[in-house]
Amino acid sequence: MRRFALIAVPYAWLLALFLVPFIIVFKISLSDLALAIPPYTPTMRDGIGEMFAAFDFENFIFLTEDDLYWKAYLSSLQIAFLSTLITLMVGYPIAYGMAKAPEEWRATLMMLVILPFWTSFLIRVYAWMGILSNEGLLNQFLTSLGLISEPLQILNTNTAVYIGIVYTYLPFMILPIYAALDRLDESLNEAAEDLGCSRLQAFWLVTVPLSRNGIIAGSFLVFIPALGEFVIPSLLGGSGTLMIGKVLWEEFFNNRDWPVASAVAVVLLLILIIPIVLFQRNQQKQAEAEQ
Amino acid sequence: MKRMSWFNVTSLTFGFAFLYLPMIILIIYSFNASKLVTVWAGFSTRWYGELVRNEAFLDAAWVTIKVAVMSSTLATLLGTMAAYVLVRGGRFMGRTLFSGMIYAPLVMPEVITGLSLLLLFIGIGLDRGVLTIVLAHTTFSMCYVSVVVSSRLVTFDRSLEEAALDLGCSGWDAFRLVTLPIIAPAVISGWLLAFTLSLDDLVIASFTAGPSATTLPIKIFSAVRLGVSPEINALSTIMISIVAVGVITASLVTKRNAVRAEADMRAAERAPA
């Protein structure tokens, strides 16, 4: 009896507040827009049976017809992919440096990487607004060096979005790579060097392949949330920045087209399922390899 | 001691400069006397004063803390139960679905979670306010709690619990007296994680908060959309300092406990049998 309650309580909670809402989104993506509150039809008040009886694919057809949505999905994928790559290139040397640091420093370095996790995401994005704006510190700095005469337009462009994503998600990349590098057996590199590899070759042929799992985990941890990102494109990106999280938000709050917003969400999720499944497989493989 | 190569020193220096400089600049400029955020006009604490007098921010901060305390406490309860079920529950109907629902919210984009919860609340006619934000925050943060707690439960030696049962404890007593103290650090860090997640959340709160309740991130977001403001710099500085002090204290305490535990072990080894 106690066991039943132990299972039932969290189970029921997740069913009611995770699965059911999701089914509702799915259903509303197949509903008609209506000038009413709530702005779609048929609603739950017409009866659950009624609500689930009518299916209408016009919202999805609408998504394929208006090239705004195509562009938004594609540019989200591009931004997420490129910023994952940049984060990897920035994060790997840091993780490597941490793993090679003297033993007694590592705990402190690790804490310094984790500390930004606990600091507000919104504030970390906001910090860049003051730096990147036309009168901002970066432009002031570059002008004072005489490198530029006109301020660079960085804020409100995609470049600022890349900077924001790399900055805020960097710890997600560093930690798994550090974990992989930390476990690495130093003698393998020495063996490679004894056998005639140069330092760089040993790094490329031994260290990188052995940290593969960390690289994969870190890349997914950056790519998946970056794809649905809303805060970064709306604060750092300009009107030309198309990201699907932002489109969904505007569709819902500004256009009040709930059925289309729901359809946007359903398609975003379908796109996300591929990397999520790949990620889970990788995690499983890793767990099995460790046992 | 092994010396670090210049390459490692440089990458660490640049890496940590990149991570911390933006926040340090923000903190410095929160003491700027000028209303223009980018022009330095001398040291002043004026914006902190204006912030303290700004009731909209204070109200929002109060709502945020209330929501965070309630949702992280609920999430810790539900998340610990869920972790226990996942690790010790054995087989039961719909186990795959259950573990799927635990892990899925971790990767679900916030816009989708927020949208779906809002549609549910409207569907069942629940008025949006503190309650709906708490429900929403509890749902996603309980998943984080259960991941943290279950990783501790997995490595936990089950025979300790069995010994307690053999010695006459009831199942609940064994949990309360043996299991819970051992997993306590994970439960506490789960609570802290849930608490910060709730404090930090903008997107889900924006969907589930009604006009009657606004959280601090929502307030900050609507203010900074209009541009950089010295008041927000002051507010950010306060928030960053609280977190820094909290995390540093926590890690010092953990370190001291670890050192003490090690000393105890050594003393025990040295003690005559």
From TrEMBL, chain A:
It comes from the Bacteria. It is found in: Cell membrane. PROSITE patterns: ABC_TM1. It is a multi-pass membrane protein. Belongs to the binding-protein-dependent transport system permease family. CysTW subfamily. The keyword Cell membrane applies. This is Putrescine/spermidine ABC transporter permease. Residues 73-279 form the ABC transmembrane type-1 domain. Keywords: Cell membrane, Membrane, Transmembrane, Transmembrane helix, Transport. Pfam families: BPD_transp_1. GO terms for biological process: transmembrane transport. It comes from Sulfitobacter alexandrii.
Automatic annotation (TrEMBL), chain B:
Keywords: Cell membrane, Membrane, Transmembrane, Transmembrane helix, Transport. It is found in: Cell membrane. It is a multi-pass membrane protein. Belongs to the binding-protein-dependent transport system permease family. CysTW subfamily. This is Putrescine ABC transporter permease PotI. It comes from the Bacteria. The lineage of its organism: Bacteria, Pseudomonadati, Pseudomonadota, Alphaproteobacteria, Rhodobacterales. The chain crosses the membrane at residues 12-31, 60-86, 98-124, 130-154, 174-194, 232-253. It comes from Sulfitobacter alexandrii. Coiled coil: none annotated.
